[in-house]
Design goal:
28% helix, binds alpha-D-glucopyranose, 462 residues, 2 domains, 4-stranded antiparallel β-sheet, Immunoglobulin-like
């Protein structure tokens, strides 16, 4: 059975509503920031991996479908701690192959991997000496998949980072979030949880897995300024080059803005930002969710995000055998093939100098809060790098009578399709004062094509 996208999104938005608004600032003041963030600005496209014990029930508990995100099953069912921990006895993902996963990321054009080291269920997916509730000590698997991934990433030149749920921990009496087993959060000794498990585990991760490109914190329940600062100092003291995402604490801003889940801003932003996104409607594997995004949808979102100055962190949820579902692997590989030809429009490219192409706010239609709704345009997006503008045209939008370049003052020296290895110059004609590039007669890729327009100057003058 297919989960309707709406149910998943509805549940996610209910749970995350307070967060989305909090995630709007990034720390840019300290001097290390520019150095830390440089790779991120180049990378643009990353693989998020949500993997844990929840991949065993995969959206179903005791024969009943549990709605919501796969990794939230313990909370949503709810499953008491004493029953959930038993999943560890059966967790033996022998088909897990770090090399294959990293190869998939490489072939899909992804430049960094961020994996759940401990999600809200409290189970560590690495060999932790802080808590025996981990994949090495508590399962028959007896391997450390995160070490294997770290090594494979180092070998393939892919950056590697950890998701870590710093505040919610449904396994611990003093962790946030599990009120069914442990009562209200306000009555808990939360600082004890932080100092005895969360902080020491973050330190372990930063100590034993080589260079960590990013610590991806999430759901900052009860993360006051003082608590957030403690984590910030910890990360900076052990690995000063490690980025911190935007969900550590409301008051303590990380290195960039994390938008809400699957939320792409309507317009471009001045700060660095990243959208965490799903390939279906869940993060952790659910057997009933096969609502995969097509390669064309993924390419559109990636280019849309890049043209607004952001990064796209796209999730896969391996099964309990340790395997990424075949269908989404294929879709990602198609995206990778497109990026092989058109990657100059993405990697290291910066946001659009224009903006009208994103769409506009409706003059008449309002949402339930009385705000004008945004009417997106989806014909094309623009990214730019030194002396070049890249116009990516999507799907049915292939103007056979010529692509009208938006107005700017800089002289255009030539134009060609990025996918054309010869860079055969395309004819540019001026019609009613508008420069128009004559595209090849037949559309070389109905999913998306990128037109490169070279300029006489490094930067476009509007
Ligand atoms: C939400 C969910 C969590 C998921 C995350 C990814 O915060 O609580 O399950 O890991 O989004 O962005």
């Amino acid at each position: 059975m297919r989960l309707t996208p709406l149910i998943g999104l509805f549940c996610a938005s209910l749970l995350l509503a307070p967060l989305v608004h909090a995630e709007t600032k990034a720390e840019t003041s300290d001097q290390g920031h520019e150095k830390r963030i440089a790779w991120f600005r180049e990378a643009k496209f990353g693989m998020f991996i949500h993997w844990g014990l929840y991949s065993i029930p995969a959206g179903e508990w005791q024969g009943k479908q549990v709605l919501g995100l796969g990794e939230w099953i313990m909370h949503n069912a709810p499953v008491p701690v004493k029953d959930y921990v038993k999943l560890a006895d059966q967790f033996n993902p022998t088909q897990f192959d770090a090399e294959k996963i990293v190869q998939l990321a490489v072939d899909s054009g992804m430049k960094y991997i961020v994996i759940t080291s401990k999600h809200h269920d409290g189970f560590a997916m690495y060999h932790s000496s802080v808590s025996k509730y981990n994949i090495y000590d508590a399962t028959p698997f007896k391997r450390d998949p995160l070490k294997e991934l770290a090594d494979a990433c180092a070998k393939h030149g892919i950056k590697f980072g950890f998701y870590y749920s710093q505040s919610q921990d449904w396994h611990e009496p003093n962790g946030a979030g599990n009120t069914a087993d442990f009562g209200p959060d306000e009555k808990k000794d939360f600082d004890r949880y932080l100092t005895e498990k969360s902080e020491p585990q973050v330190k372990e991760l930063l100590t034993h897995y080589g260079p960590v490109c990013l610590m991806w914190f999430d759901t900052p329940f009860m993360m006051t300024e003082e608590r957030g600062s403690r984590f910030m100092r910890l990360v900076r003291s052990v690995q000063p080059n490690c980025l911190i995402d935007g969900r550590l604490s409301k008051e303590v801003h990380g290195d960039y803005v994390s938008t809400g889940d699957n939320v792409v801003p309507n317009k471009s932003m001045t700060e660095d930002w990243e959208v965490p996104a799903t390939t279906n409607n869940t993060w952790g594997f659910r057997k009933d969710d096969t609502d995969w995004k097509s390669p064309g949808e993924i390419v559109f979102k990636l280019v849309d995000v890049a043209s607004k100055g952001g990064n796209y962190l796209l999730n896969v949820g391996p099964t309990s055998a340790g395997v990424i579902p075949e269908h989404i692997q294929e879709n990602l590989l198609t995206v990778g093939k497109w990026l092989k030809l058109n990657g100059d429009a993405i990697y290291g490219a910066t946001k659009s100098p224009f903006g009208d192409e994103f769409g506009e706010y409706s003059a008449s239609i309002k949402d339930h809060a009385g705000k004008p709704i945004f009417l997106p345009r989806t014909d094309w997006r623009c990214t730019t790098s030194k002396g070049k503008l890249f116009f990516t045209l999507f799907r049915k939008y292939y103007p056979r009578d010529g692509f009208e370049i938006p107005a700017f003052k800089t002289k255009v020296t030539q134009a060609y399709m990025l996918s054309d290895p010869e860079h055969t110059p395309l004819k540019i004609v001026v019609r009613d004062g508008v420069r128009c590039v004559q595209l090849p007669r037949s559309n070389p890729d109905p999913m998306a094509v990128t037109l490169c327009v070279e300029l006489a100057d490094d930067k476009v003058q509007l």
